[in-house]
Each structure stands twice: as structure tokens, then as C-alpha cells.
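Protein modeling request. Please complete all fields; requests missing the sequence field cannot be processed.
Requester role: graduate student
Desired output: 3D structure, C-alpha cell encoding
Chains: 1
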Amino acid sequence: MPESQGAQQDYRPDEERESIWSIARRLRNWYAWIFSIEYLLFLGLTIWDEVHYQTGDNALQTVLAVRRGMTANILDIVASAYVILEGVMLAQWLKERDQRKEREAVKLNQQWQAWYERQQAAFRDGRPFDEPPPAGPGAGPHRRNGR
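Delivered output (147 residues):
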């Protein structure tokens, strides 16, 4: 099957994106959760740092200092949530790719086993056997290291 056909068969609308920085539709809720958790953790750490180590000022000055700290780091939180999500997506894609390869290998091995059994039955019965072996990657179940 040509690669373009395989790509068309793998198309899923929930994976659609508008740009490299967009999030797949099916993962938007996950992104929101990751972002929110990171934001709240960072907010808590910023407040803790400001209250205990930075200012001895009044509440308004502390709130403004926390706001400045959060504003300065919001892009870091956005980017890290995106990187985490992309990492999860990459891991999922690698797992699906490995599973697909495994299914293809099992299918090819079954084809070779069936072909071999037909060949052996023909040899036992003294019949000629001119059926070509199954085609596929590796040209055989025992091919290794390019041999």
C-alpha cells in the first residue's frame, strides 16, 4: 500500500491541528488540566517564596509582587504544559507504532507458516509445489541482519 494511502487511512479528525503550537482537539482538556495544575503549583511556590523570603511588606505589596512573579513566568508554564503534552503524545504514538508493527509481524508470520505447511503437505504427497512464498518486509520469517 502506498504511503499516501496509509496516511489517509490514519487520518482522525480529533488529531486535526491548525499550527505547530495548537493542541489536538481530543487533548485540549488534558492541556487545560496540566496547565492549571502547573499554574497552581507555581502560584503556591511564588506566594510561599514571597511571604517567607522576599518581603516583609503589607498584603497589597505582597500580592503585587506575586502577580509580577506569575506574569513573568506565565509563558514558561504555557510552554512546559505543551511540552509535557507533546511528550505524552509522542510516547502514545511510539506505542501505537510498535503495536502496529507487532500485528504486521504476527500476520506475516502466520502467512509464512500457512505457506510452509502447504509446501510440506505437497512434498509429503509427492505433488509439485510452485506457489510463491508470501511477499512482505524481510522476505521471510527467518531473515536477519540483511541476509
